Amino acid sequence: MAARTPLHSRHLAAHAVMVEFAGYEMPLRYSSMRDEHVAVRTRAGLFDLSHMGEVRLTGSSAEATVQRLVANDVSTLTPGRALYAVVCNDHAGIVDDVLVYRVDDGFLVVVNASRRQVDVEWMAAHLLPGTELRDESDETALLAVQGPEAVAIVQTLTDQDVSGLRSFGSVTGEVAGVPCRISRTGYTGEDGLELYCAPAPAPALWDALLEAGAGRGLIPAGLGARDTLRLEAGLRLYGQDMDETVDPFSCGLAWTVKLGKGDFIGASRLRELDPDNPPRRFVGLALGPRQIPRHGMAVLAGDTRAGEVTSGGFSFSLGHGIATAYVAPALAVAGLSVDIRGEAVPARRVPLPFHGGHHHRQ
Amino acid sequence: MPDLSGYRFTPTHEWVRRDGDTATVGISDHAQAQLGDVIFLDLPSVGAKLTAGARFGAIESVKAASDLYAPVTGTVTEVNQSLAETPERVNTSPYEDGWLLRLGDVVEGETDLLDEAAYLAQAEE
Fold first, then answer.
1. Residue B39 to residue A224, Cβ atoms within 8 A
2. Pick from A158, A219, B90, B97: most CB atoms within 10 A?
3. Taking CB atoms and an 8 Å cutoff, what residues of chain B touch A29?
4. What is the reported pTM?
């Protein structure tokens, strides 16, 4: 049976359509996916992301362990700050994409729910002596308030200066009386905050946020809107856009790879690759208003199969179909199309992100 | 919810409401709930001939593209033009404002049509 988050009762009370995702019973949508998407782009949406995993690494060698595990450079992180990183295997395949915070006693690594088990085993197998690992996923709830009104809404519930919090910064403090890590992060392409707290007070925090945000148009938003938002923002989804067969250069994440920082797992393989000329290219494709590309559809260059759609859907913000795809570099030029049920539908190559001004790079 | 006593359903989730030899066709509330937000519809033009049980169009939602099958045989006399601008009417009012086609010269075909209770019992299996 699927696991439940601490906010399960709230989802049922709101008549959410529930789906199983990464072993959890999660809300797909509460009303219309379009309405929830538009709310996040124009006002604010509230997400339950409690299924995501949190792993704490502490001890005298915690920093050296994290530097070994991720391709990005955490040495410059000041306390409270976070960065986006990939964990690679020895062949430079991506084990997971994660968010790493420097916290008072070490590092907090936020991992995909679908990869939690794999990640914990991988990290535990690669700890340096003097690092302790603690999987805190089951004792951590995660609520995300995203959208242009998000910060103002949370500010009404806390004494902490969240308006002054920089992107990818975090502080600890109370929100609606609930002790939280308050983080200026998200995965929607909008400004916003993510709140980590204990499971027990999470429902009260959920209620307080909805009440405080009602006047500013805050509504609960499900995984469906989260997916269309992150796709528009050009953000990758593990398991769809990347996996252990994909290196970070191929999926356009060269900016997260710091080969100059010293040795880390996957570095020797990454040094053999050319960051500017990966074996396949991760591209954005724009289609017409009545053409919706889907995961797994073939990308064609003329009559030749040039690659495959990894994520696709309808962009509510732009009003047409969009997709990300891997395409052979030599063919990643003009004249591409997507095979939609046997019809070669012309697709224009466009830069990422498709939409969503608030970029998540840090 | 409107009175559905005059509606008959296909196992493929379309409904038909007969009125003499004319009929109105749409998709069920259960179907729209499963599909999620409707993005657009491919519908036949006025004058097209539909055959009971045969594909007559498609509906694209956030989830997937789904084929539409004719509940009865007949000729298209009217297409719900409002769906081009507001396809969400299929979600918000599947039995009234979100109707798809009106048909003339209607004859029932081989397809077994179900009443609401029988349809729901089958759909929710």
1. no
2. B90
3. 36
4. 0.94
Return the CATH number at B97: 2.40.50.100
Domain that holds residue A61: 53-135
- The reply to whether B1 falls in a domain is no
Question: Collapsing DSSP states into helix, strand and coil, what is residue A340?
Answer: strand
Domain that holds residue B20: 7-123
Closest CA–CA distance from residue A309 to any residue of chain B (Å): 15
Reported confidence tier of residue B43, pLDDT bands at 50, 70, 90: very high
| Residue A67, H or E segment | helix A62-69
Alpha helices (runs of H) in A233-321, residue ranges in sequence order: 267-272
Interchain pair A34, B62: CB under 8 A: yes
Closest-CA residue of chain B to A36: B37
Q: Are residues A41 and A73 in the same domain?
A: no
**End position of a domain, from candidates A113, A135, A157:** A135
Is residue A228 located within the same domain as residue A84?
no
Closest Cα to residue A250, out of A226, A212, A276, A219? A276
Interface confidence (ipTM) of the complex: 0.86
DSSP labels for B10-59?
-TTSEEEEEETTEEEEEE-HHHHHHH-SEEEEE-PPTT-EE-TTSEEEEE
- Among A135, A170, A185, give the residue marking a domain's end: A135
Query: What are phi and psi for residue A152, nearest 5 degrees?
Result: -60, -35
Are A84 and A104 contained in the same domain?
yes
